[in-house]
Design a protein that fits this description.
About 35% of the residues lie in helices and about 15% in strands. It is built from nine helices and seven strands. Helix 1 packs parallel to helix 8, helix 5 runs parallel beside helix 6 and helix 8 crosses helix 9.
C-alpha cells in the first residue's frame, strides 16, 4: 500500500534538528525557543517512538553520515533509546560523489546491510539522509538535469541544482522500495522532508487555503508498505508530531495513552 500527503515542519528553510525532535518525540517545538533541542534538552526520559517500540520488543538503529557531534546527535540518539548508532562518514561503507556527497542511494545500501544483519526481532530503522542539504552552488549549471521553467533570477541556478538532487533522491528511493518489495517480513517505510531549502523564503509561494508562512513550512511525506495498509486514518496534511501516532494507528498497532491523545486532538 502507498499513501502521500504533506507535513508542516517547525521552521522555514532550516532547523533539521527541530524537525527530528518533533518526529521522534511527537512533542511540539511551539513552546521552545531553541533551534537545537538535542543540545539543550534532557531526552533520557522523553517520549520517543524508539523507546516505545523497544517496549514492544523492537531493535532500533539510527543513521546519519554527517558529523556525529552536529546537533549533539552522538548524545541525543542514545538518550532517545536507539540500540545501535551510526554517525559520521567512517561508519558508512558506500560513498559516491555525484550531484553531492553521500547520495541517498548509498545511504540506503548501508541501511539495508544493517537491516538484514539485525537478527530476528522486529526493527525500527531511522535514517537521516544528507544529499539534499545546501548550499546549491556546488556544481556547474551544465551538470543539472532538473530545470525549472520559470525565471527566478539569481535563484534559478540554485533551484535547478536542488531539483537535480531531488530527482536523484527519487531514483535512490525507488531502489530502496524495489529491494524491500519482496521481503518476507511486513515492511513500512515513512519518508518525510525535514524542511524546505533555505531559499524558499525568497521565492513566490502559494497554497490554496494557507498563508505563505505555512506553505514555506510544508514538506511532502510518503508511506509505503509491502502489505495492505489502512490509509483511512492518514491525513493529507499533518504536523510532524502527528505522523508517528497516525501511522501506528493506520497499522493497527497498540498505542500509548500519549499517542492516543495526539490522534484524538488531530481528529
Amino acid at each position: 500500500g502507498i499513501y502521500s500527503g504533506y507535513a508542516v515542519v517547525p521552521l522555514v528553510g532550516g532547523g533539521t534538528n527541530c524537525s527530528e525532535y518533533e518526529l521522534l518525540s511527537s512533542n511540539s517545538m511551539y513552546e521552545l525557543s531553541s533551534a537545537s533541542p538535542f543540545s539543550l534538552l534532557d531526552l533520557s526520559e522523553a517520549n520517543s517512538i524508539v523507546r516505545y517500540l523497544k517496549s514492544l520488543g523492537y531493535f532500533s538503529a539510527a543513521m546519519h553520515c554527517y558529523s556525529a557531534e552536529n546537533y549533539a546527535r552522538n548524545t541525543a540518539y542514545p538518550a532517545l533509546g536507539f540500540d545501535e548508532i551510526y554517525l559520521g562518514k567512517d561508519c558508512f561503507t558506500y560513498h559516491t560523489y555525484g550531484n553531492r556527497e553521500w547520495l541517498d542511494r548509498d545511504n540506503y545500501e548501508d541501511l539495508l546491510r544493517i537491516y538484514h544483519n539485525a537478527g530476528d526481532s522486529p526493527r525500527f530503522m531511522y535514517l537521516l539522509t544528507f544529499q539534499n542539504h545546501g548550499g546549491y552552488k556546488q556544481n556547474e549549471p551544465e551538470k543539472d538535469t532538473g530545470r525549472i521553467s520559470a525565471d527566478l533570477g539569481q535563484y534559478t541556478d540554485e533551484v535547478d541544482e536542488y531539483l537535480t538532487s531531488v530527482q536523484s533522491c527519487a531514483e535512490g528511493f525507488r531502489y530502496l522500495i524495489d529491494e524491500l518489495s519482496d521481503n518476507e517480513r511486513p515492511v513500512i517505510v515513512l519518508m518525510v522532508g525535514d524542511h524546505e531549502p533555505s531559499f524558499i523564503s525568497e521565492l513566490p509561494v502559494s497554497g490554496k487555503g494557507y498563508n505563505s508562512s505555512v506553505v514555506q513550512r510544508t514538506v511532502p511525506y510518503f508511506v509505503w508498505s509491502n502489505r495492505d495498509l489502512n490509509t483511512e486514518t492518514l491525513s493529507d496534511i499533518a504536523t510532524l508530531t502527528d505522523l508517528i501516532p497516525m501511522l501506528l494507528d493506520a497499522l493497527d498497532m497498540p498505542l500509548s495513552s500519549y499517542y492516543r491523545l495526539i490522534n484524538e486532538l488531530r481528529l
